[in-house]
Write a structure and sequence with these properties.
Radius of gyration: 21 Å
Helix content: 55-70%
Order of helices and strands: HHHEEEHHHHHHHHHH
Number of strands: 3
Number of helices: 13
Distance between the termini: 70 Å
Oligomer: single chain
Length: 267
């Protein structure tokens, strides 16, 4: 009996060692100490059809004017000097028609998805553009890929499997979990700073994220789940940092509330 048990443990140990060796080979083969834009593009392209399948029947708007407005606002951000990946990623935006959800997420390839509930929580064009810039940072910087690697649900080898296209990872499961993953606080802070940097050269109020926070903290409001996935241990410090960063830009920029309301009416 002891001999049989020892043999079983030996077989298990060899299989486990083999799997661990395979995992190391996947990572070593791709040199995943740093993800390239090509890596990010491949990972995003793998996730995108699965995301589209998950939200089938809920995506997009049939109103051409609303669709054109979304593209216009996105391109306003993408075509700034701060976004260096515009020629690599196919940046685009899709609305997920769920009014009860107040979040958004961007894939590593630059495809941004935003729930209609979050769009309806926003009040001005400057807030919307700030949020777009915040999200684009995650694709621009590669943080959207690290979001997967740093999660408790997946490992670096899972991303390696996608890049090798070896069929060893359940991409559909990864896509199902992806919209619920939370960024680490330093990434969220950097995205806040990026949003101010993007809006600074424009005539817009550059503190759109601050204005969203201030509305969310009103007694009659509930904090959008967007902030749960982009956390800050101290929200007051988060606001103060953005206010300081925005001072050189001028704090009296346009908000275009009427234009944004007109968009929402057509959504």
């Amino acid at each position: 009996m002891l001999q049989k048990t020892t043999f079983t443990l030996l077989i298990f140990s060899l299989l486990f060692s083999s799997c661990r060796e395979d995992d190391r080979q996947v990572i070593a083969q791709l040199n995943l100490d740093e993800y390239s834009t090509e890596h990010n593009l491949t990972i995003g392209d793998a996730l995108e059809p699965e995301i589209e399948n998950i939200f089938a029947g809920k995506l997009g708007t049939t109103d051409e004017v609303a669709a054109a407005y979304l593209d216009k606002m996105l391109n306003l951000v993408v075509n700034t000097s701060a976004v260096t990946t515009r020629e690599v990623y196919d940046y685009k935006i899709s609305v997920i028609n769920e009014d009860t959800r107040t979040s958004s997420f961007i894939l590593p390839n630059g495809h941004l998805y935003i729930y209609s509930g979050l769009l309806k929580f926003l009040e001005t064009e400057s807030q919307f553009i700030s949020l777009l810039a915040h999200e684009i940072y995650y694709a621009e910087s590669g943080a959207a890929t690290l979001l997967i690697e740093d999660s408790d649900d997946f490992e670096k080898k899972d991303l390696g499997d996608i890049l090798l296209d070896n069929g060893r990872v359940d991409v559909a499961q990864m896509a199902a979990v992806y919209p619920t993953l939370a960024y680490q606080e330093p990434a969220a802070e950097a995205a806040d700073d990026f949003s101010v940097e993007v809006l600074c050269p424009f005539v817009y109020e550059p503190r759109g994220i601050v204005k969203i926070i201030q509305k969310a903290q009103s007694p009659d409001q509930t904090m959008p789940e967007w902030f749960d996935l982009r956390p800050a241990e101290n929200m007051s410090s988060r606001v103060q940092r953005m206010n300081v960063n925005a001072e050189p830009c001028g704090l009296d920029g346009v908000k275009n509330a009427a234009e944004y309301r007109a968009f929402l009416e057509r959504l």
